[in-house]
Amino acid sequence: MRKTNISINGKKFIISVPSEKDWGLVVKKLSPRFRPGLILAVQGDLGAGKTTFIQTLAKILGIKRFVPSPTFALMRSYRLPKAVSGICRLIHVDAYRIKNERELAVLDLNEELADGQSMLVIEWPERMPSWLKSHADSLIRLNIK
User: What residue ranges do the domains of the chain occupy?
Assistant: First the structure.
């Protein structure tokens, strides 16, 4: 069983996830907060379930394609077939290979979010603390244990 610690604007709560098929419980708990510009920072050890959570999120948002972790591409973008809470696109970043935050410049995440229609989900957010700090008002942190 996994436990997901969630922090929203300094308020913390825990959701237990008995099995892989139950990641939808976490997505449903978060869904009232979904809006364009939202950033989900998903932290956890290797194999904790970060990518599985994001795949569940994508499926619930209506994305039919397989959603792999973009470890080598760094970023993948998915159009939603139908807008959900104003969100038309899911952007998935995997910062595992980032050694220095300057490497993020090529992704131009601020520009990606500027379209007013995208939600960003980040694996390994601890690799980009300064960028996340500058977006704290749009951030929900998940720590999977």
Answer: 2-144
Owner of token pair 């379209």: 115
40 near 140, Cβ under 8 Å?
yes
Lowest mean pLDDT segment, chosen from 15-19, 39-43, 90-94, 137-141: 15-19
Question: Is the backbone of residue 16 left (phi > 0), alpha (psi -120 to 50) or beta?
Answer: beta
The answer to whether 105 and 98 are in contact (CB under 8 A) is: no
Distance CA 37, CA 99 (A): 25
Amino acid at 136: A
> What CATH number was assigned to the domain covering residues 2-144?
3.40.50.300
Both structure tokens of 132: 């996340």
Region of 61 please: left (phi>0), alpha (psi -120 to 50) or beta: alpha
- Distance between CA atoms of residues 50 and 93, nearest Å: 11
For residue 1, pLDDT beyond 90: no
Residues belonging to the chain: 145
Mean pLDDT of the chain: 93
